[in-house]
Amino acid sequence: MSTEPPPQPPQGQPSLMERLLAAPVSAFLFAACIAVFFLAERTGSTNDTATLVRFGANYRGGVWHGEWWRLFTSMFLHIGTMHLVWNVWAGWSWTSTFERVVRGPRFVFIYVVSGLVGSAFSIIGHDAVSAGASGALFGVIGGTFVLMRYRLGGWRNVWNEPALKRNIVMSVLWLAIGPFVGFDSFAHAGGMVAGMALTSGFLPGGRNRLALATFFCAISIAAATRPLPKLHDGWIDVRALDAAWRKGDWNEVLSLTSNPAAMPTFAFARGAALIELGRFEEGEALLPTVAESLDDVTYLSKLHLRAGSYERAQRTLDAALEVSPRNLTFTRAKYQLYWDVNHLSKADELADQLIGDHPGTPMAYGLMGRRFVRDGEPKEALESFRKAYEGEPEEWSTDLTMLLIEEGERDEARKVLKDSPGYSFLGCYLAVVEGDYAGEGQVCETLKKKDAPTLEARAMQRIGLEKCDEALAILEGVESKVAQVLRNVCATRRGEAITTDSEYERATFEFAKSNDVKLLGDDAERLKNSWLWPLLPEAARRALPR
Q: Among 465, 501, 463, 460, which Cα is nearest to 482's?
């Protein structure tokens, strides 16, 4: 066994422990960065935005909603292993030396405030999720340049030192190329400016400079806590907008898109929200005809249709089908468009194509079910709709429920409604059909959504309770076709004139006043199977029994 003493480091070469003890604050700061990194990696990935946000990353949506602490916590969080390794390895060479010169308290002040100003510049300058100690490190680099300028007697002498010249050039290049390679140059620049100003204030005779530098840093940090007029007028918190969209909180969507002209890509979101709230004319003015993304095609077409613009709805689908002619989703959406606007001959042409291309599918069964309904074959229609509903419940629950209600199969209709909570307004329809306006019909009053179909369903129930004033108040601002028909129902009950371009509707309301079945002509059967039937006066329904 050897008895030789362990090897000693060469003379003049301090050990690792000696280096750490010589700059204890720097050692603690980087140890904190490493600890936070491993803690974040244990619960997710520091390359994942959700993990970064959870562990204190810096971003506008958080800071501007009161999470000001992110300006500080983001200084200890890093994005991926290489980001951490680089900041610790390169940062140590700067911070350890700087700390030994300016000493602990001043070093902590310059480092932390530079990091906060860097975070503030990042918030003010761009909309991104950012993290890292770079803002504070650039503050140390800037402070080091100021110290060298003081020791050497001027910036010219600093520039004449080859090593310092290389560092200055590298720092400038780092700031210049940052936007092109994904670095946060706003944080780097803000940190460097703060570090230089604060360090200058700690030099002899720098009391006034320190006061001005501190004031500048405080103003910069405060400015980052809320959007600045003009500079951020067009900013939209994409994450908050996405959350509001997913929840169907259309009023919040409007709040977040208050200036769509400044961010035209979000005009679609604002237009959709306006239409969902029944403000069709305003929403239609903001919507494009051609969808920017194929994922938006069918929804955009439906929005145009709800706003009463059949032509733009059709053009949206036609444009998508030019790009993808055999796309099943777009073809199916075009069929549905024809069906919704009662262009049955065109709908039949597409139905034949879809049934022929996809026989035995839920879609084919559903389309055949609609054919059976039109041909007066309710039993065959129910069988087809049940098969369609089994495979695509969300697509066909409305058709199945409506037919079940009309055929008196109320128990099964309730079961379908129970399995399809998204169509709760059909429960209101069921109650209206049964005349149970104050019993189960009260489900209409519990519907909280502010979209047009929900408001229409609630208004139907109030009309059934002979409360047209309340129904009209619910429909205020809703400009849909159904809403106009409901207004005409109330006008008929009050003996007022109706407003409609439809001969069918005009005949229906004249019949409701006189109970003269002859006024309906060939539309008598159509009326008996329509959603409007239960809202007719009882005398009219007796005159035209089902």
A: 460
Q: Which 3 state secondary structure label does DSSP give 58?
A: strand
Query: 3-class secondary structure for 365-391?
Result: HHHHHHHHHHCCCHHHHHHHHHHHHHH
* pLDDT for 244 beyond 60: yes
Strand partners, 58: 130
Residue (of 80, 57, 78) closest to 137 by Cα position: 78
Query: What average pLDDT score do residues 89-116 get?
Result: 92
Looking at the fold, whether 25 and 98 belong to one and the same domain comes out as yes
pLDDT in tens, 273-292: 998 888 888 888 888 888 87
pLDDT in tens, 409-462: 878 887 887 766 555 667 777 777 777 778 878 888 887 766 666 788 889 889
- The answer to whether residues 478 and 451 touch, using CB atoms and an 8 Å cutoff, is no
* Claim to verify: residue 205 and residue 242 sit in the same structural domain: no
pTM over 0.90: no
Q: What is the pLDDT of residue 8?
A: 47
Inside any domain, residue 52: yes
Q: Does residue 134 have an active-site annotation? A: yes
Estimate the crossing angle of helix 81-102 against helix 104-125, to 10 degrees.
140
Domain end among 287, 312, 328: 287
The model's pLDDT over 510-528, given as tens digits with 9 standing for 90+, comes to: 998 888 988 888 888 878 8
Determine the Cα–Cα distance for residues 13 and 19; give it in Å rounded to an integer: 10
Q: How far apart are CA 272 and CA 267, in angstroms?
A: 8
Query: What CATH number is attached to the domain comprising 104?
Result: 1.20.1540.10
Q: Are residues 28 and 171 in the same domain?
A: yes
Give dist(CA 272, CA 234) in Å, integer.
19
**How many domains are contained in the chain?**
3
In three-state form (DSSP H/G/I as H, E/B as E, the rest C), the secondary structure along 469-534 is HHHHHHCCCCCCHHHHHHHHHHHHHHCCCCCCCCHHHHHHHHHHHHCCHHHHHHHHHHHHCCCCHH
Active-site position among 26, 83, 122, 188: 188
Residue range 302-320, pLDDT digits in tens:
888 888 788 898 999 999 8
Q: Does the residue 395 lie in any domain?
A: no
Annotated catalytic residue, options 74, 119, 134, 420: 134
**pLDDT per residue as tens digits for the range 326-375:** 889 999 999 988 877 768 788 889 999 999 999 999 999 999 999 998 78
Q: Taking residues 86-97, what's their average pLDDT?
A: 90
Integer angstrom CA distances of residue 198 from 111, 150, 195, 205: 10, 14, 5, 13
Same structural domain for residues 25 and 111?
yes
Average confidence (pLDDT) over 255-261: 72
Burial environment of residue 191 by CB neighbours within 10 A (0 to 12, 13 to 18, 19 or more): buried
Last residue of a domain, one of 198, 223, 248: 223
Asked if 246 and 97 sit in the same domain, the reply is no
Rounded to the nearest angstrom, the gap between the alpha carbon of residue 389 and the centroid of all alpha carbons in its chain is 31
Q: Kindly state whether residues 212 and 163 are assigned to the same domain.
A: yes
Looking at the fold, whether 78 and 184 belong to one and the same domain comes out as yes
Joined tokens for residue 387: 């098969």
Say yes or no: 534 and 467 in one domain: yes
Q: Give residue 519's domain range.
A: 431-546
